[in-house]
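Appendix B.2, paired examples.
Example (i):
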Amino acid sequence: MSKFCYVYVLLSRRDGNFYTGFTHDLKRRFAEHEAGEVPSTAARRP
């Protein structure tokens, strides 16, 4: 059985920049972004 891979794009409301990422667990990854656990987006979170 193959596992799906999700590609996603986030838009920062602070600076208008885009962040592109990929993951197998979209809910977990989004939670990581929201919690500031991803260095690339930590400074731009809500």
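Example (ii):
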Amino acid sequence: MRSGTTAIIPIKKSLARSKGSHELNLEAICVFMGTGFFLDTDTYWKDEMVISPGSEYVLDSDGYVVLLKKWFEWHHAPREISFQGALDEFTELFESIMKEQTGDRKVILPLSGGLDSRTQAVALRDHPEVKAFSYSFKGGYPEHKIAKQIADKCHFQFRSFSVQKGYLWPVIEKLATINQCYSEFTHPRQMAFFDEFKDMGDVFSLGHMGDLMFDTFGYPQLTFDKEVQILTKMLLKKGGKDLATELWIAWGLEGTFENYFSARIRELLREIKIENTNAKLRAFKTQYYVSRWSSNNLSVFNEIHPVTLPYYHHRMCSFICTLPEAYLANRQLQIAYIQQNAPDLAEITWQGQKPFNLNNYHFNKLPYNLPYRIIHKMKRELNGALGKPHISRNWELQFMGRENDNHLRSWLFDSKLADLVPNTIIKRYYSDFKEKDAVKNAHPVSMLLTLALFQHKFNS
């Protein structure tokens, strides 16, 4: 017998055997194609499962789960507490977690133009060994300039990386081995700088999940059916439902993908015993999306150095469950924490509200932001006319252009993908991506590429 415990938000998936034959779980793969992540305990295989987050378990000698119970359930029990009281508690909790996780180790801090890593920078400001970095797309918004301002104010060493066109192809097989094809390949930009990170420090401090915890979805109290509709729309990617539906039909699965997916969402949502709509949606997304998509993409960082995540910590999860939803709206706690403890960092541009900062972002509306919008549009149009298109999406660097297209075609059409996916489906999505609507079809093409690598490395 072997026992263990899974974290509330696991960094790595814990696998167990499942009753059934060793064959592909085609229903689960359809969900993966539609959403970009495997749902709940699903894997590629019918005889394998992921152990649920926040669980205590016992495995028998053959690797089957014989006992599984939850030690943590997402809940919503808001206290009567002032906003300043919540801010004081957050400050003490966040800084203590950061100190525990980093200690006297050499810290590698990815910095962005947003709030999560900026909040970490405040907590690490007095740490003697921090090396920060940021990356920007070539031809995209220069996010690294904001990150450098933050690093300079904090006296961190800083490196700026430029994500180059086509960086994916030389490392795609290595990436497939690292993430085991449980997420697609266009998002882990850190693969472009894999070797550079090795000598930068001892441990990564990552800000994943902060934006989900410290904000609200802003919905009124909704019916259960409406919550299911919102989650369905939230989770299915552009073009994902179409691809999943076509594969469902091609593989001769029972019923329809739409009904199957809706039934799964309804079943899982019922298990979350929270009445408040926004708290329930946050719990669902954390339990099923963060643990299966965000965490899987941590595998690249984890391959280089250990990772720490203050927003993943069990004490932070418990804390969130006790806060009034109104205090979580619009990133109030993080903003107030930065304003109170590092007012100079609050004056630096907030990328999500550019060109405004944490003190004046309320003016990011007409007519106050009109001059910036006009100038920004003119710059983009001028660069486009000069043959320098604006890059804002990961896939644009990896799929667009002749050389990228040669690699993409090779994996889609010269691999074993056709052993699993009918060629007519592969050709149609590739053609629609190239000739009709690249934005809508980028996700399906990326997922087909992921399946091609899965076939190549794990199902040959």
